[in-house]
Specification:
Length: about 210
């Protein structure tokens, strides 16, 4: 908090330079910590100040785009935690629009970030009855998970895949497609069982 105050003073004289960027980053970091600590009100205050400092026209460079995406993701998490799903959806959609498509040297990180956001977006969509959107976005999620094969640990990929299947299954139930929903849930449960079985076996050996 003290560092944020110091950077606020520097940033006042440097609206688009390094001091201004550091102030936004400090406020965003503070908001994340407050959110993790369960202090939504103060997290909202810090985040709102950071959001107000983002220039309407972003300066050139990936750093400012990444900064804008970061703030939208924090906003989405905050609103989702408050069960304000319409606001969470708007924030997730803003972040997804700003996030580059997964290609080039950063393909792995961009794909992982995008699928994580789509999964969380799906939860808010389901809460508001937007099952068709969730079912449609599941195809993109599956394609993104495919891009991660061989790039990240297998367990992380399967965890993402299980989350996608859970969202898709819930969406299909809401759409009345019960047979397909059962298949998605079954596949997701099989993935979870495959991960927990070795851990249970290790526990049995220790006993």
């Amino acid at each position: 908090a003290t560092r944020a105050v110091e950077l606020r003073r520097e940033g006042a004289a440097d609206k688009r330079g390094d001091a201004h960027a550091r102030l936004i980053d400090a406020l965003a970091s503070l908001a994340r910590h407050l959110l993790a600590a369960g202090d939504a009100a103060f997290a909202d205050s810090s985040l709102a100040e950071a959001e107000s400092l983002i220039p309407r026209k972003l300066p050139a460079g990936d750093a400012w785009r990444a900064r804008a995406v970061m703030l939208s993701r924090i906003r989405a998490s905050l609103e989702q935690g408050r069960n304000r799903h319409a606001e969470a959806i708007a924030a997730f959609e803003t972040a997804l629009r700003a996030l580059p498509q997964p290609k080039g040297p950063a393909k792995r990180d961009l794909a992982a970030t995008r699928v994580q956001m789509l999964v969380r977006l799906g939860r808010s969509r389901l809460a508001l009855g937007q099952a068709e959107s969730v079912a449609t976005e599941a195809a993109e999620c599956e394609a993104l998970v495919g891009l991660l094969v061989g790039e990240v640990p297998h367990r992380a990929i399967e965890t993402l895949r299980a989350a996608v299947l859970a969202n898709e299954g819930a969406a299909l139930v809401a759409l009345g497609q019960y047979v397909e929903a059962e298949r998605r849930f079954g596949s997701g449960l099989a993935i979870l069982a495959a991960h927990t079985a070795p851990e249970m076996e290790d526990l049995r050996r220790q006993m």
